[in-house]
Design a protein that fits this description.
Blueprint: H1 3-10, H2 15-30, E1 35-38, E2 42-46, H3 53-64, E3 69-73, H4 84-97, E4 102-104, H5 112-118, H6 120-128, H7 132-145, E5 149-152, E6 156-159, H8 170-174, H9 186-193, E7 195-196, E8 203-205, E9 213-215, H10 217-226, E10 231-234, E11 243-246, E12 251-254, E13 265-269, E14 273-277
Parallel strand pairs: 1-5, 2-3, 3-4, 6-10, 7-9, 10-12
Antiparallel strand pairs: 2-13, 5-6, 8-9, 11-12, 13-14
Helix pairs in contact: 1-4, 2-4, 2-7, 6-7
Amino acid sequence: MDFEKALRKFDKLSKEETISLCEEAYGLFRREPPLLKLSFERIIVVGDLHGDLESCVNALSNFEKLEDTGIVFLGDYVDRGPYQSGVINLLLDAKKNNPEKVFLLRGNHETPSMNFSYGFVELLIRRFRKEYEEVYDAYLKVFSEMPFAALFEDSTILVHGGLARRVKSIKELEEAGKGGIEPEDPIIFETIWNDPSEDVEEFAPNPRGPGTYLFGKNALHRFLRENGLKMMVRGHEPVPSGYGISLQGSLITVFSCRFYGIRPAALVLSGEYSFINLD
């Protein structure tokens, strides 16, 4: 599917079409655990999209060309960009049509606190007027059941934000639940909000605000070592080339939204890693 076709098909669904799509997706997400365990020859990992429908279409097109491949989206599908409805609707449709290979993690923008401040709710009000609450409630139910972490081949942990202070083991992520409409559990909240820093060794307060933290190489290396992992992959922060490698090669940041003045990219993980340009 090309950009123009995706735009026509998914960016302006009716209220009934949107709610029906959300209800089908909700049933699929409810059956998934908080931490996914994925086993494929390779996976494509897509970072924040924020309404970038072109990057979303290009990522799915790359995925569809490959055998024994999964695709993982790291969250932040809506807010800020011009085609927020198109992105989330296309992804929910992709999940519905290929639930065993398409995976959507939750980001910090799959929450009301972000949606009321950064554009998604405003978009729904313009489009659906007095009926927007019914549509938004359907999306919120979907967001509340999205997993917030994934494990690929027992070697790489994928999240939206980063390492939470209290998390020592993979089991703690598995047992954390999904957090509901507005996650308050520190494990979930910090996993979707925290950031890495080369200037921190363990943890430090994050300029993003209360309850969020920076994590450093010592904290991440200890977590990876004690859980038999090699690497963490996350989104959450724009990087000029669409990807960045930090904390002595143990962390990759992927960002896939072109509207930040960057070159959008996706990560391909197999035995090694490489990157795809999504321009």
